[in-house]
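Researcher: Dear colleague, please comment on this protein.
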Amino acid sequence: MHEDAERCVRAVRSKDARFDGWFFTAVLTTRIYCRPSCPVPPAKVGNMRFYPSAAAAQQAGFRACKRCRPDASPGSPLWNHRADSVAKAMRLIADGVVDREGVPGLAVRLGYSVRQVERLLLAELGAGPLALARAQRAQTARLLIETTALPMAEVALAAGFASVRAFNETVREVFGLSPTDLRTRRRPAPDTPGVLSLRLPFRVPLRPDNLFGHLAATGVPGVEEWRDGAFRRTLRLPHGHGVVSLTPQEDHVACRLSLSDLRDLSIAIARCRRMLDLDADPVAVDEQLRSDPLLRPVVDVGPGRRVPGTVDAAEFAVRAVLGQQVSTAAARTHAGRLVRAAGEPITDHGLTHLFPTPEALASLDPSVLAMPQARKTAFRALVEALAGGSLDLGVGADWEKARADLLALPGFGPWTVEVIAMRALGDPDAFIPTDLGIRIAARALGLPGTPAALVRRAQAWRPWRAYAVQYLWATGDHAVNRLPA
């Protein structure tokens, strides 16, 4: 996108918010970079430069606009919807791998040398892994400066900076203000002590019914709940745990976070955004699906559907096995039983546990598993593979290898594997033509009703077949497609 200057100029002149996060506009005369929808009158075309990432603009010596706050743009949809090495690297950086393990750790996870990783990222994003991680730390620092009263030394540590000096220099370079000046410009609103209130932006349109309705209807007792118009759940994070409350609003999702360690802030935000699929480009998705005349009416009725994801891929895989051939209520009951038996207790008003780790589930007494023997075998094989490291479902996982590894486990068929690929791995093209609800919806719309014929028809929907699944499910009377009363 950033290499198509003519298209970028049109987006900037029309202040098209759909392109926020796709590219960043820098102005040579002011040395400021903005999002495309910045309300400031656009500069002369000759003074514009376009960058694929905020980190690239920062490396080129530009500072963030104080009006449009480009660091708060929705993320690029490319990184969650691509399976190549650059996309994996971006997902891993967002999940804090560079801050925890350094660039060598990132390279090991990708199976490349450090030099290869730097070359790949520089070629596509105009910035290396350290610069990209630095840009993320700067955004985290701004959030903490503006929404908390923490001393600056604590903000620096929580944001991942090695020293207060590096923190001060980075904030000045990126935002053109000292940390103290940044805090005085935007005083934090009164709030509950220890709770951070944030806004998670997204590209419109967004339909909250299937997204939040599904999360609420399938919520695991003690781990998740729907309360007072918000979806709440516990989070297991690298440095501790957290509790998040997410409320859909017209142009953002209101996020309230309570963390045991503030170093997990950016990671928690990234995982919540993945769970809600907030970096998606609904206009591009819906345009592709509308090309099928039989699918078009369903898309037109409720555009902007997202694919509900997860904050923990291993957790979702376990829940997918528990949900095999049983109702949603029965799956919730099984999951709640596991949580009480092996979950880590926490203190919160309403939520009681973190979902158990694969290691804890692998050592669980088999008598707790009140399910058929075949499903017990599948459950045991899954948690042992996850605990032993032979199965990788993390943000940097190879989607096709993960599919093959899952299919090799006893009790795993195409339905379970594709559901995990769609919800846990985040593959936008995952498809489940054998699902009964999909087949019923397809026949009702005049689409082929047999799996093989439906797969052939769905070739035209690629690479967004997972979104087509959401639209097809929405045609039926599914409780997971409605928000609780």
About this structure: The radius of gyration is 23 Å. The longest helix spans residues 129-147. The chain has a mean pLDDT of 92. The chain is about 50% helix and 10% strand.
